[in-house]
Amino acid sequence: MILAALLPLSLFLLPIWNITLEAPQYPDNIGMDIWINKITDHEPNDIQNINLMNHYVGMKNIPEHMPEFDVFPIVIIAMSVLGLIVAYFRKRKLYLAWFILFAILGAVGMYDFYLWEYDYGHNLNESAAIKFLDAEGNPLAYQPPLIGNKTILNFVAKSWPMTGAYLLFTGMFLSVAAFFLDKREEVAKS
Amino acid sequence: MKLNKNLIIVALVGATLAFTGCDNNKNGDNAGALSGNMADRAYVAPGEHDEFYAFISGGFSGQLAVYGLPSGRLFKVIPVFSVDGEKAYGFNEETKPLLNTSYGFIPWGDSHHPDISQTDGKLDGRWVFINENNTPRIARISLETFETEEIIEIPNSAGNHSSSYVTDNTDYVIAGTRFGVPVPQRDMPIDEYKGNFKGALSFLKVDPEEGHMNLEFQIMMPGFDYDKAHPGRGKSDGWFFYTTYNTEESHTLLEVNASQNDKDFIAAVNWKKAEEYIKAGNFETMPTNYAHNVYDVKTHSATTTWKKEVRILDPAKCPGLVYFMPMPKSPHGCDVDPSGEYIVGSGKLSANVTVHSFTKMLDAIENEKFAGEAYGIPILNFDDVLAGTVVQPGLGPLHTEFDGKGNAYTTFFISSEVVKWKLGTWEVLDRKPTYYSVGHLMIPGGNSQEPFGKYLVAMNKITKDRYLPTGPEVTQSAQLYDISGEKMEMILDFPTVGEPHYAAGIPADLVTPNSRKIFKLEENEHPFVAKSEKEAKVVRDGNTVHIYMTTIRSHFAPDNIEGIKVGDKVYFHVTNLEQDYDVPHGISMIGANTSELLIMPGQTETFTWEPKKEGVWPFYCTDFCSALHQEMQGYVRVSAKDSDIPLKWTLDDEWYDSE
């Protein structure tokens, strides 16, 4: 459970999510890595190049700062501390509670991510140079997928978790494992 | 290499009759190149990369062309000694200094012999050196940017033909003198050539880090014509060998008068000895004036430094520095095999290829077996240094390269063929026709200690009927042979830029990892850079106006400018803010007496405009940069000389002024 509580801290060292755009004229792809406190180039200058491309259809620039970048690190630290406290008390039910709380917070985080993606893909500049319509005649949206692959015009957008997220999932899984493992120990004791 | 063409044609007719008879497969080969198997070997599928780079000299175009092998596809023409409006080379303010010489700005040159830098006698893929024949110069091209980074002028020299070859560790790149001249230049009767004219051999030290060249010393030789050269390799590292012709020292009708001696010389120069003499102070310092032009990749600008003196070694006063080895009939090519033992001289008017032995040469020198001397330089006995002779391999031998498997390949200009022969036994193994009148040939690494003996490129002087006709001036060409088997097989024929004198080839994987994709904007130290649109502005200083302009898809900043006056000198300093691979922007201005700019990502270039008429004059992006390229345009309002229209400009749709 201690490991479970510490693994989320890896998010300060590793990105959590990645969105990559693939197109024939970008043989090396362009992408951005999303961290709990920043968004960075996957390869040097990728964000500038994403912004340059997206401005034609009126999309905003990738933000350098978002309010979430202040909140997420606090949440992660708080959850780690909480996890350590839970580990100290070795209450099985608390392990599960910690997991459920983290899962809820994770879901909230994903929902927030979705909202940003929705805004990024739908809230377009009125004076955009290029305006596409979808099959129903509405302005085409350029929202990247929450998770998975999606074709947007000449690009394939790929949105997948990165190492940080996998370590986080591992931590959460470990808390559940601890829940069951400790259960067995208790049975053995009794 | 412009021989008398009438003579050539006459010789050709005779020679092809005489010699192609030896190869009845001529037509068979021709058809073979079209057959599936051979075409496949030169075929590089769309999207695939070639195995080798070939840097082929542009000759009288003054440039260096970059091809892929085996496809023969042309990738880039690197401007070196001639201006190039496409790339603004010699037109923009940044590259103009590269073409400075002691004679002033020269817009054209005659590029000859590219050679790739080496480490331990092996290609290292850092730089290509190439010489200019007409106004003697050597250029260094970076294989990181594929751009000319340095040009140094060679004083006391004329016809810089025996150039620009590098030693095993690129310690030196060399220049020579094909046309004897008075040194120092002075007004004197041409008839007094003999004994008075000189031929300087120049040694340029290469800085191992930056590649910068420095003229260390010149050896002031008698006024023979120093035609070609080759450094010693391996065991003969420390020596340089030069073919000479016109040892008759004639100055008129050389065609006849310089072809009288039965033998001319190969000059063997011990450059390590030269270093000792320099170290010992055994030289004279001679006042002179020459340009040293260096391009800085950080400032994206070249500067000229004027050099005022040169150190001269007199071979007559420096025993052990130079020896002459007799070589039949006006030798042209001078080539040393990968082991460094064999020095191949091609007497271009001889029917044989003569090979001298480095070991025998050292032995003859040690035992002081001299046949005589010329201007105080010892002459060795022909028979004492002779390793062997390839007997009657063809007509008009010119150049030899090696495959690293014990074979040599020599071109024959008059009989239009490449002949493969064996080192040591001197037997002819194979011969294949070229179309027509082949000059140089190139095997990647074929003049180094480690050749990549898979392909051979023959470079022809004449094509006649080989391609669709294009009026009186037709293309010159190269031909690619697969030399991986016992017999050579011609697999491709491709046109070249200008006249392909010599070429240098290298496996692509020794170059591509270092090839630059963009210039980093944060490293840009150009004095007039604007690193963001916020830094874009217009500054007036008297009649001079500096526009700090930026480009990014798909607009200029500023894109409207007012307050320019007739008679102003307007500098457009344009920075490409892009940081993406292959997104250059261009710019050109109506009526500007210069070329466009073609600016790579992160680079700053400058063109100058002197508006002559009032009006509102548009400029635009010349490189199709994006879907909105056609919208990438702007205007400059030009007012009367005495107008008081204030200077102002637009950034992102808003007007700004200098206050």
What does this structure look like?
The complex is a heterodimer of chains A (190) and B (659). Chain A has helices spanning 2-6, 46-54, 68-89, 92-122, 163-189; strands at 17-23, 26-34, 39-41, 148-152, 155-161. With 190 residues, chain A is α+β, with helices and mostly antiparallel strands. Chain A has one domain (2-189). Chain A has a five-stranded antiparallel β-sheet with strand order 3-2-1-5-4. In chain A, helix 3 runs antiparallel to helix 4 and helix 4 (92-122) runs antiparallel to helix 5. In chain B, strand 35 (544-552) and strand 36 (555-557) form a beta hairpin. Chain B is 9% helix and 42% strand. Chain B is mainly β. The chains are: A alpha+beta (190), B mainly beta (659). The A-B interface holds A 28, 44-45, 48-49, 52, 56, 129-130 and B 518, 552-553, 578-581, 626-628, 631.
What portion of residues of chain A belong to β-strands? 15-25%
The span between the termini of chain B is 62 Å
Domains of chain B, number: 2
Note poorly predicted spans of chain A. none
Taking Cα atoms only, what radius of gyration of chain B do you get, to the nearest Å?
27 Å
Mean pLDDT of chain A: 90
| The CATH superfamily title of the largest domain in chain B | YVTN repeat-like/Quinoprotein amine dehydrogenase
Count up the helices of chain B: 7
What fraction, in percent, of the residue positions of chain A are helical? 40-55%
Which geometry of chain A do the CA atoms define? elongated
Instruction: Report the count of strand segments of chain A.
Output: 5
Counting H and I runs of at least 4 residues, what is the number of helices of chain A? 5
CATH architecture of the largest domain in chain B: 7 Propeller
Radius of gyration of chain A: 20 Å
